[in-house]
Amino acid sequence: MVDDLYQETILDHSKRPRNHHPMDDADRKADGYNPLCGDKLRLYLKMDGDVVQDASFEGSGCAISTASASLMTESLKGKTREEALKLLDKFHDLLTTDTPASRDLGKLVVFCGVRDYPARVKCATLAWHTLKSALNNVPDPASTE
Amino acid sequence: MSMAGSVISAGFDVEKIREDFPVLKQTIHGKPLVYLDSAATAQKPFAVIDAIRKFHEVDCANIHRGVHELSQRSTAAYEETRSKAKRFLNARSKNEIVFVRGTTEGINLVASSWGRKNVKEDDEILISAMEHHSNIVPWQMLCEEKGARLRVIPMNDRGELILEAYTALLNPRTRLVAFGHVSNALGTINPAREIIEMAHRAGALTLVDGAQAAPHMKVDVQALDSDFYTFSGHKVFGPTGIGVLHGKIKLLNAMPPYQGGGDMIRTVTFEKTTYNDVPYKFEAGTPNIAGGIGLGAAIDYVHHIGLDNIAAYEQELLAYGAGALEQIPGLRMIGTAREKAAVLSFVMEGIHPHDIGTVLDRQGIAVRTGHHCAQPVMDWFHIPATTRASLAFYNTIAEIDALAAGLKKVKEVFG
Q1: What span, in angstroms and rounded, lies between the C-alpha atoms of B397 and A117?
Q2: Record: contact B413-A61, CB cut-off 8 A
């Protein structure tokens, strides 16, 4: 029934989020806020030149937003800024269009079910909006609205 | 766990009532719709739907200005709602009934018109800790403009206002006390009569946000002695975009207009305009005529069911619901006031309300999840959001059983 949305990987990452801790030596950080549900998230990036060396996040939200942040931080490591931004676009397409999932998404394809739950798309994109702010050094909190 | 229907309110035929609400007869994701979001907006009976349709099909014209037959019919139907609203609130006169878009506009009208004229620097406006954003922000805006101070009556862990603290907050600078009759997020029924009496003793006026009270209980503005009382049509089974502000006639007469335009004037020249009498002084432009007529039908419908019957039946549903939810491990009710209206607001350990809402939706159950436009209430309880099941007289014991079963499914998914 709702298993198409709450796939095993999503439930796993929501219950045991990876990279869920503050980062003292982060080069970049950004805050994200979803005013609809009140979820707040802080994203940390450790950069090596143009490459994301490490990523972590703080904050708690629904299963979708937590799992999305967890899987995002995993998938960012080793990516250049440009690759990360491309991944963001592909992830967004996965949630909002019928185009076949890009191979580059890897594990992130588990979020394909969100497409059928328009009210939840913003939950899945909160971490990614925040990533964009962090990569672009935007000082204001990213908002899903 | 299920109770036999006959145990509940002998004589209250909920199945017959449900026949009046076409929207309830549908399936969502293959399951019968269980609508538990009436505090957000209530569903509409055929009587309301038909009245609006009849207006558009048979009587449609602008009001107050035409000499032709249709205009007279429309005017009569619209103004009849004013008389119905007068009886609904037991107002002294129908001239005390101002039509607005809803509770939010009712509050904004008072803050803008009465507030700008009467609130000065260092004056104080009192609100309560459980207010909806609509009864916070207009007063914040007023206070900011005037250099006045917004103060907050605190509440206890149950979600009840602390009246001792309220007494201490009242002082000669208090101009107005604005509070919700019933809390939308917690269901608390506030002791309105007592709060108003205490305000008056301190020389302050009162505004009551009646959005969540009007659908559930008899409201008597004369017995309450409220200075302003406002409610929304769509929460009393009428359409959206229409509501009522009741004000004592002396206050309304002394207040400047809220918006300028047609209908609110007596004479206009380029040099000077004289204003119409209340309530028309506050009703600029073509109003929501269809909405007003629909509201009249809604008030008739509620009176037909009977507010005492509604209150009694809903209290039984609420008690049953609270009992059913208490049995779910890890569930915590938010808002456990001793005097409560039909709201079941709760959190579940380790499960976010949005996930609860989605899993329930797939079982056909509509609840509200989020901060319910009452972020300070969420902050007070140190939670980001709740899941809220809000009841109306068309809900059944079987639907509460469905909610309880739905929450068990939630626990299966996220357990």
Answers
A1: 29
A2: no
Contact B358 A37 (CB under 8 A): no
Q: What tens digit of pLDDT does each residue of B241-293 get?
A: 999 999 999 999 999 999 999 889 899 999 999 999 999 999 999 999 999 99
Residue of B nearest to A16 (CA): B350
Q: Is A121 on the interface with B (CB under 8 A)?
A: no
Of B214, B393, B368, which is closest to residue B316 (Cα–Cα)? B393
What is the nearest CA distance from B189 to chain A, expressed in angstroms? 26
Q: Return the CATH number of B5-32+306-414, one of 3.90.1150.10, 1.20.120.530, 3.40.50.920, 1.10.287.620.
A: 3.90.1150.10
What average pLDDT does range A13-36 have in this prediction? 93
Q: Please give the Cα distance from B283 to A103 (Å, whole number).
A: 60
- Report helix angle A8-15 to A63-76, nearest 10: 90
Q: Report the top-level CATH class of B49-304.
A: alpha beta
A interface mutation test: which of B28, B334, B347, B352 has the most A CBs within 10 A? B352
pLDDT, residue B4, reads 43
Q: Give the active site residue among B284, B373, B383, B398.
A: B373
CA proximity to B335, closest of B327, B287, A50, B325? B325
Query: Is residue A25 in some structural domain?
Result: yes
Condensed to tens digits (0 to 9), the pLDDT of residues B61-77 reads: 999 888 899 999 999 99
Dig out the tokens for B1 from the structure.
């766990």
B373 a catalytic residue: yes
Poorest-pLDDT segment among A81-85, B76-80, B252-256, B368-372: B368-372
Cβ <8 Å between A64 and B375: no
pLDDT mean over B32-59 = 98
